[in-house]
Design a protein that fits this description.
The chain is α+β, with helices and mostly antiparallel strands. The chain contains nine helices and 15 strands. It binds 2-oxoglutaric acid.
């Protein structure tokens, strides 16, 4: 069923039928808990070994953590949020110029997740942009609001640096050379999803985004500071990750799970909706270069007693990405298709 943009400003009083999930597949919001011990990592710390240890614990246990003092200025973050809100506030006519449901397009405004594949739609519109190398894509980006290109370029450059610093810490935390991940991932691509979840008349019946893992290497998420919505699955239970204004939420994607030979987890997460307020989130995805070969780091499996091969077979990121988008979002963990048999 072809879904349409929902960032129209129109307040629905009931949920349109194509968004209603079967009873077995609903958010069950009353069963979600607060996450008390969600890791908070201060990137300005000069105690490197403690930072590395904190990263290790967070990635092995949660696959998710928050970073503060990350180096992206408050001004840049605030301007990014403003420009994103202004974008979704534009007229339908203006927004439809960018609409596409073709996942191979490098700049597109779309809705739900993958409307060509899914049976039930999700209560989300999203602007998807490729951000690196910027000069290759910036001409495709929206020209309105007028400051869009300048603000998004600055934001994505600064976020990229945060990602690289975290990748170094991740490498070290696995006992690898600090440049290991950067070297394996090659010239990393960078995509952005600006997610907009309008108020939803019946949040118990649908998702903003259903449970999924991220197909890339590392995700850096800027959450709306006032509206909750992100939830992560830990030991079979859903927990809310409530926003902290000065923090990014960072999570391990499928590729870092593969490269760490499963030591670090690419954890299921989802976005839920609410009746009151629109919610904005901005996800920046660092992606391996298409031809980078994802090969679990040797020291992580060779050291295991009796292990003669890694959990995952070698694959290129291009192969993985194609597989990911050929599926529906909430199927099995995509990495299960790449196990070493
Ligand atoms: O909106 C959120 O908090 C989650 C976004 C997300 O998971 C995604 O864009 O892949």
């Amino acid at each position: 069923m072809a879904a349409k943009l929902i960032s129209t400003g129109f307040r629905h009083t009931t949920l349109p039928e194509n968004y209603v999930r079967p009873i077995s597949d609903r958010p069950r919001l009353s069963e979600v808990s607060e996450l008390e011990d969600f890791p908070l990592i201060d990137l300005s710390s000069t105690d490197r070994s403690r930072l590395v240890q904190q990263i290790h614990q967070a990635c092995a246990r949660f696959g998710f953590f928050q970073v503060i003092n990350h180096g992206v200025s408050k001004e840049t973050v605030d301007e990014m949020v403003s420009v994103a809100n202004e974008f979704f506030d534009m007229s339908m006519e203006e927004k439809m110029k960018l609409y596409s449901d073709d996942p191979t397009k490098t700049t597109r405004l779309s809705t739900s997740f993958n409307v060509k594949k899914e049976e039930v739609n999700n209560w989300r519109d999203y602007l998807r942009l490729h951000c690196h190398p910027i000069h290759k894509y910036v001409h495709e980006w929206p020209s309105n609001p007028p400051s869009f290109k300048e603000v998004v370029s600055r934001y994505s450059r600064e976020v990229r640096e945060v990602g690289f610093r975290v990748e170094e810490l991740i490498s070290e935390s696995l006992g690898l050379d600090k440049d290991h991940m950067k070297n394996v991932l090659g010239e990393q691509g960078q995509h952005m999803a600006v997610n907009y979840y309008p108020p939803c008349p019946e949040p118990e019946l649908t998702f903003g985004l259903p449970a999924h893992t991220d197909p890339n290497a590392l995700t850096i998420l800027l959450q709306d500071t006032t509206v909750c919505g992100l939830q992560i699955l830990i030991d079979g239970h859903w927990f809310a990750v409530n926003p902290r204004p000065d923090a990014f939420v960072i999570n391990i994607g499928d590729q870092l799970q593969a490269l760490s030979n499963g030591v670090y987890k690419s954890v299921w997460h989802r976005a839920i909706t609410n009746t009151e307020k629109p919610r904005l989130s901005i996800a920046s995805f660092l992606c391996p270069s298409d031809c980078a070969v994802m090969s679990p780091a040797k020291p992580l499996w060779e050291a295991e007693e009796g292990e003669t091969k890694p959990i995952y077979r070698d694959f290129t990121y291009a192969e993985y990405y194609k597989k990911f988008w050929s599926r529906n979002l909430d199927q099995e963990h995509c990495l299960e298709n790449f196990l070493n048999h």
